[in-house]
Amino acid sequence: MLRRPKPSDSEADLLREQEKFLTSGAPSAANVVRRPDKRRGEAGGEGGGCNREDEGRPRDVVTIEDLPDELPTLTPAPPKKSRFKANRVTFEDEDAGETLDRHDTHISAVLSRIVERDTSSTPISLPALTGIAFPKVLHRSETSSQVPLSSAVGKKSIFARQIAAQRLKEGKTPLHCAPEAAQTPEHREQNLPTETSMDTDQCGAAHDHPTAVSGPSLLSGQGLGVPDSSGETMRIHSENQAKLQAMSQSEILQEQNKLLSQLDPRLVDFVRSRKAQSVPSSASASKQPRGKSSKDNFPLEDMSRESASSGAAVLFQKPREVEMEREEGAEDLPTSPAVTEKDLLLKPKKEWVHMDKLEPEKLEWMRDLPAPRRKGTDKAMQARFDFVGTLIPPDEDLPTHLGLHHHGEEPERAGYSLQELFLLSRSQLIQQRSLALGTLANILSKAHAGKYGSVLKGSVVSTLLDAGLLFLLRFALDDGVEGVMSAAVHALKALLVCEADEECLDYTFSWFRGLASFPLLPSAQEEEEEEDEGLPEILKETAKEKEERKSDHDVARQDVVKGLLKMKLLPRLRYILEVFRPSPPVVQDVLQILTRIARHSSSSATQVLECPRLMETVLSEFLPTSWTAPSSPIPQSVYGLPLASAVKLLRVLATSGRHACARLLNSLGVRERLPLLLSADPSELLLEPTEALRITTEAYRLWAVAAGYGQACKLYIDLYPSLAKTLQSVHTVLAPSDPLLPLQLQRVLALISLLTQITHTAGCHQELQAGMLSSQGEECPPPPPVSWGHVTGLQASLLGHLRGFVKSLDNPVQEDISLAVIPVYLVYIEAYYHQLSRQNCFKPVETLQELERLVSEVLLPLLSHNVVQGLIKNLKSSSVVCNVQSSHLGPETTPSLPGLACPGWRDRPGLVAPSSPFPLLTALGLLLETITGLHKGLSCKFSGLLLSEPVIGYLRSTSQAMPILSHTRAWLVRHEHHLLYLLLRLAHRLVSIEREVAKYASLYHQVALVLLPWLLPGSEFLGHELLSTIIFNKDFISEGQSGGPEAVELGELKLQEETKPQTSPSLQTVGALLREACIQLPSIRGCFLTHLAHLESSVLTSRDALLGRNPWISSHLLPELTGPTVPSDWPFLPLVSLYERTGVSDGGGLEVEDLPQGALQAVTHCLQWLLLLEVWREEALKVILPVAKLARLSCVFLCSSDLFLERPVQKLMWGLFRLLTRRSKLDSLDLNVPPPGLASFQDLYSALLTQYEAVSFGDRLFGSWVLLPLQRRYSAIMRLAVFGEHVGMLRSLGVTLEQLSIPIERFTSPPEDSLPLLHLYFRSLVTGTLKPRWCPVLYVVTLSHVNAFIFSQDAAAQEVEAARHSMLRKIYYLTDEVLRNHLLLFRLPQQRSEFGFDLYEQLPPNRAKRLESVLRQQDSSDDKGH
Predict the structure, then answer these.
(1) Are 1253 and 1287 in contact, with CB atoms under 8 Å apart?
(2) From CA 375, how far away is CA 395, in angstroms rounded?
(3) Which band of pLDDT confidence, cut at 50, 70 and 90, is reported for residue 70?
(4) CA distance 302 to 382
């Protein structure tokens, strides 16, 4: 190893090291090369004038690897600006290579012939003779008077200008300026190029002065190579002027555009610059048309390039075809006049050094900004926003005092792009950082509100998140400047929180199960687990370990909230609240951010609770135990004052689980703080009236959530006087004239919701007391401190309120108030009677009398009121299920940050709109479900509701709907599912006793079938009830009782007469099978309930929540929204379950174990139910693809070796096969689409073929099933599998053409075009593998395809034609006369014939001629061979 030289080494040391290096033979770090000297003509070795003396003296040039040829500058040079770049519109998808090819169309544009100009005719002028020996010394003070600057073309020295001035005094023309310099401005204006004249609206100048012909303004004639070059130039110029005078203005414009399209833009700019120098700037300015700006020729540039420092994505505006003018010649506009000395506010003085020369290009930035170009384009332009987040149209001209103009790439356009805002957010100036973050917050708020959907391409939120907004805001939160930190908090709140979503959730809190909500988790994404493949289970990483191993960016890309938690957001927010003690808006933003994080999931809520000192700071500062009244309505600080947003945060945290709620109540002291807020009237809370009402409303809601777990009920006993006083003043506080009516209304609704939850909890006291006594050591929840006796006194008061509000519907002033509060009162009445029936003190006779009075005095008048009837008419228009394709522009949502899409909910029809009947009908249906269960005689009085036209129309639309599952719809669809379920429950009460209701039984049954696979997590109990009471109820399958099976049989017989006689068992047994299925409905129900037993725990949890069993509820946060509770193909569940239990994949085949006990009965029941649905409820199965049905039914053959041979299974499978292969169904059966759960249908078919060869024993049903995918329109892969790998099965595939219910034409048409498959067809025929007695169907199919192939006249490739000839010759020389006649004389398939096809008596002439020609070619080739 050679050491590096040291400063202390002597010359001897260096020589010694050099010797070591040379002897080692190591490569040198620097090479000595011979570089040619271009100045001496040595470039490329072709310099003919090379100096021979230099050849013997080579120059040594040392080059070091990776060292640039030019030395780098010590200071960064300013970026070079192109003079032509600003004159072009560029777009994000424009290719630079195409642009280069468009302008440089040939190599001659770069390289051209270089010719030395002829100077023989150039005049030579000698200096004038003077008596002065030496020229006079020039001073700077005298140069300005020598010659005007405008007369000098280009940059000239002082001496050259002095000589030019002297020649002008002598009356001579300066060199290289003739004849232009001597022209007057007027003449020059006349002689401007036509293109420039039109740009300055002087098109008629040449027509006004036809005789004024002067020299050209650009050319002097030098280099023409003729003696009189100037005269030749003038002659050409005169011809040009004459042509221009003879042309009209439109023709001139047309020629001008033609020239401009052909010329290089740089050449055009050069001509314009020469014109600008030759024309005085004052004249140009005076000719400038009004309304045109000096910078109009600079088009808009799309900022498609990302800044290397910012990384911010660019958002583009959609084209504006209507408002924007299309200008064909975008580059034809005049250039801006140069800045003159007159335009300067401060005139330069001659004594100023280096100020005698005006540099217009350096003064352009001082000009007024031009008006934005309104250029029509079909491409998008970059979006720009003002400081409040409003999108600025590209053609809008805003004044500069708004501060929206800046020195960017588009200085004439007002506003800031997202890229520029990202740059400003990292500025060193505090004001710029704050301004950028505030603008981003406003943009995010408007994006959540859906303001940009119609004008911007893509999603603003997604674009910002992809550009790294989350990390930008997180870094800004750590800023030490309070203003920047506050702006970052506001921007983060705008990103995470949608205020309209929170308003909707608060609005629906008092609905039935409104306090429950779905966690706002992103949809689960399947992650690749390639790293864990092949590892044992012990060594595989857990989900938590994988999550911890991910980077912050990866986590945030999938889940924004989880990414923020991983970036330690919660400790920073605690520090801001505890140390910074920011202003009230920042505090509100922080509390709203924490609320949104708590809504994310129960684990996120737990992290909020467990963050050190966070909740203690919130409770001590914003929910204190004592406070003083603020000095002003808008306090400067909210520290030490109770805040409604802090109570709401506690309520959302409590919703996440009963343990979190107990921790808040007991450990954090919320139990002691609630009485402080609720024991006094809101006006006595020493708070601003609006805030006082909000905080008491949130306190009631928090208490209601706690009471929903059976907690904090002791407070009810303590605060009973205050609650009773508040109830007495309900009608008083809900006065229409009260300006705080909306807040008062929400407070009353929250109070009634609280009483409903306390009633449910009190109703469970007796059951828990008995359970605790009989538990014998088992775990049992303790009984709540409130019992049924504590709540019985509320019913009379609240029922009186309900009567009053029903009567108030007649008053138009109080109509809206009554409609808002009646639903929550109905929910309370239902809770009371539902729990009353479970108490020991229940008196049936008195209760039934009360219910009759309730129905006659309250419910029937309410239902028949014209206001309610008008509300019911909005049922269909307010539905979420029926209006999947809503026309309104929804707000932006991103997968990593799901929302509820609620902005604008008050202004559009919807389930939560004020005109929606859903809250009222749901509450009424809930009450009817309870009272009709107690008093069955009351059911008939409500048949009118089910038979009303709006309800029937709504149910019909529902039965045909196909809703989409998403976070934005799930929280609303859940409430609609409640109403549908309650309507079906009412129909269940009436269908057996009301004839009119029974007429619509099939409609109700159809709705129940489509509702079951829609039910979301948390509604498992509703699904269980539908399966138990309605779906398998014979009263709802009216066809089974009114001659339905007989009608099916008659239809099949009619079809048989119209088509052909069939012998498949399906025709004779479908009617009988349906009758048997109707008889077996109870057993079928038991079969499906058994296969859904794995949902038992979810059903019990859902039952506790829906029936008000509060002490057993573990969380009001619904399960994660991963999909519907029951799969859409649930009717096939027993088949799939049996296949998964018995079929084990092994080497491409299947090892079939013994069938479990009861498997045959389960399969039979499943097939009976499927047959019934296919015949009478076909619409309910439309969500299942036909290929999925075929794949699921194939499990019958794969799960056992003899299950399909059982007689009941055979009959049912024949019936289903007949239904699946109807002519109307075959076209929709697409086997190229992979069935759900399978990679492809071909894999399943391969398993079917293996199973058929192993266990079929020639079964006709199994054979028909195998033949179905061999139709011509399906993939040839399956046919290749039969005739290639599984050719042995052809010996046992004995299905006849009469037994096959599929037309044979679907197998034979169009002719086969796969050459390998045709070879296999031919081989199976000639080798005897395929014979008509073994496999009649495929024998006909192969004959048809081979015959069509050998006699085809279509042009084909040489390989195909050779195969045709070869097959035809081999067929002709076959020794099997029968097969040869079949192949040559085949005509058409014919099912009634002996073999299933017709034959020609003899070959048709064209076929005979082809056969003869093929044989003749063979004979001639044989002769040549001999």
Answers:
(1) no
(2) 8
(3) low
(4) 5
Q: Is the peptide bond before 179 cis (omega within 30 degrees of 0)?
A: yes
Per-residue pLDDT reduced to its tens digit, 938-961: 999 999 999 999 999 999 999 998
Choose among 893, 1177, 909, 892: nearest CA to 1030.
Answer: 1177
311 sits in the region (left: phi over 0; alpha: psi -120 to 50; else beta) called left
Q: What pLDDT score was predicted for residue 401?
A: 82
End-to-end CA distance of the chain: 80
The band of 300, judged by pLDDT with boundaries at 50, 70 and 90, is: very low
pLDDT at 218: 65
CA-CA distance, 282 to 285, in Å (whole number)?
5
Whole-model pTM?
0.76
Distance CA(1194)–CA(1204), nearest Å, equals 10
CA–CA distances in Å: residue 531 to residues 528, 536, 554, 558: 8, 12, 17, 20
**DSSP-assigned states of every residue in 1201-1213:** SSGGGSHHHHHHH
CA distances from 347 to 158, 341, 342, 355 (A): 21, 7, 8, 10
Q: Which residues contact 781 (CB under 8 A, 6 or more apart)?
A: 710, 768, 1111, 1112
Highest-confidence range of 35-44, 143-152, 642-651, 879-888, by mean pLDDT?
642-651
Nearest residue to 218 via CA among 252, 243, 258, 191: 191
Residue 1399 φ then ψ, to 5°? -120, 150
pLDDT band at 802 (very low <50, low <70, confident <90, very high): very high
Calpha distance 905→914 (Å, rounded): 9
In terms of Cβ atoms closer than 10 Å to its own Cβ (0-12, 13-18, 19+), residue 410 is buried
pLDDT digits (tens, 9 = 90+) for 1176-1215: 999 888 899 999 999 999 999 998 888 999 999 999 999 9
User: Rounded CA gap, 1272 and 1270, in Å?
Assistant: 6
Determine the average pLDDT of the residues in 745-765: 96
Bridge-based pairing state of the strands 316-317 and 61-64:
unpaired
Cβ atoms of residues 911 and 918 within 8 Å:
yes
Q: Are 1298 and 1382 in contact (CB under 8 A)?
A: no
CA–CA separation, 706 vs 718, rounded Å? 16
Contact 915, 878 (CB under 8 A): yes
Estimate the share of the chain in helix, then strand, then coil, as percent rounded to the nearest 5: 55, 0, 40
C-beta separation of 419 from 314 below 8 A? yes
Identify whether the C-beta of residue 708 lies closer than 8 Å to the C-beta of residue 515. yes
Q: Which two tokens stand for residue 1161?
A: 């009965």
What one-character DSSP code corresponds to residue 400? G
> Residue 1168's Cα: distance from chain center in Å?
42
